[in-house]
Amino acid sequence: MCGIVGILGAGPVAGQIVEALKRLEYRGYDSAGIATLESGRLARRRAEGKLKNLELRLLEEPLRGAVGIGHTRWATHGKPTETNAHPHASHRLAVVHNGIIENFRELREELTRKGHAFSTETDSEVVAHLVTDLMDGGLPPHEAVMAALPQLKGAFALAFLFDRQGDLLIGARRGAPLAVGYGEGEMYLGSDALALAPFTDTIAYLEEGDCVVLSRAGAAYHDASGRVVNRAKQKSLASAFMIDKGNYRHFMAKEIHEQAEVVGRTLAHYLDMSEGAVRLPFDVPFDLAGVERLTISACGTAYMAGLTAKYWFERIARVPVDIDVASEFRYREAPMTRGGVTIVVSQSGETADTLASLRYAKQCGQNIVGVVNVATSTMARESDVVALTLAGPEIGVASTKAFTCQLAVLACLALAIGRARGTLARDAERRFVDELIALPGLIAEAMGVEPKIEAVARDLSRVRDVLYLGRGTSYPLALEGALKLKELSYIHAEGYAAGELKHGPIALIDEAMPVIVLAPNDAVFEKTVSNMQEVAARGGRIILIGDGDAAKAASVDVEAVIAMPVVAPTFAPIVYAIPIQLIAYHTAVFMGKDADQPRNLAKSVTVE
Ligand code: G6P
Question: Residue 237's pLDDT is what?
Answer without folding.
Answer: 65
